[in-house]
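Section 5.1 Outputs to date
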Amino acid sequence: MLRTAGIDAPTLADRVLAATDARQRDVGVTDGAATVSAEVHAADVARVLGVARGRVVELTATVPDFPPSQMTLAGHRVWSRAEIEGWAAAHPNCGRDSRRFDPPPPGSPGPALDGILTLAKAQATALNHTAVLQEHLLLALLHPDCTGDACAVLKSFGVTFSQARGRYADSMGDPFDAHDRDLVTPPATHLTLEHATCTAIEVEDDYVGAEHLLLALMQGWVRFAGWLEEITVETLHERLMAKTDGMLPTHRPTPWRVLLDFASPVRVPRRELLELAASPAGHDPRRRRPWGSRVFEIPGRPSSPANGQYPVDRDGYAILTPDGQPIHTLKDKHDRPILDEDDQLIFTTMPIPAGSRVCRHPDHT
């Protein structure tokens, strides 16, 4: 639709960056008027010069009279905006080039990410999973066949690919059973890959690579914290900045606790784990993750979300207490989940809505 309207990718990126210039340049407000920061990072330098960020790295290393930079406490290199603009005016032919790229076509992550996605699919298949998740993308970055700054930074924590994959598999309990279903790539994974492309555009790169994917994954690092405890998002950010000598100008990711804003501000002491019955297949539900959900059934009527939902294990069986009650997360009066002191969900029993029932059989549709 955008192409029909005559809007190409570079034009759209220019307009988006112009609209978000305040965030990109750390705009402040003085006496009611917006003022642009006197210091700029590598992506801003690239915008001023009209080149890709890689060209800024090259100019910094090879051109003697290129303005010097300073390293901030956050690990970014910054330049004086006035000096950069003055240098650009004195060198009108400083190597202006095509500073952006056309995003990959729909359904394709692009050449570099396509190789990483292939590795991720191989991991999902090896673990008998039915979908390619962000966890598989991270495993791909740790794979020996994956190279680049992002992979080197991850491996610098001393966690091997085999260790990470083993921990991830253990975090879901029992090994997944072999199946004959097609492997799918869900929307959330596609969104992560698209986020990597947007990150590349944001930092003025002319390619999308593993480091952009890592930055996209870092925004939701809470997904991996349980099986990669030695890698914190803060330390990961610091090492990535150091690996690129401060030339990858990204903001420190938001601490993961802020991601829990959806939850109630109330915190309660940790409770004993709720006793759960084995599934009809004889499995412990806690060892059959990830959990999903289904809606309560009303005999003779189509199921509707209005009936309410209850958790099911990965086999599709309802998760019940020994006396047959379904469970749900404890919530406050505003329907926000209440967490314990360790930021974990609290499960309690729930009544079955009148006239409804849980399905005793798995549903793989």
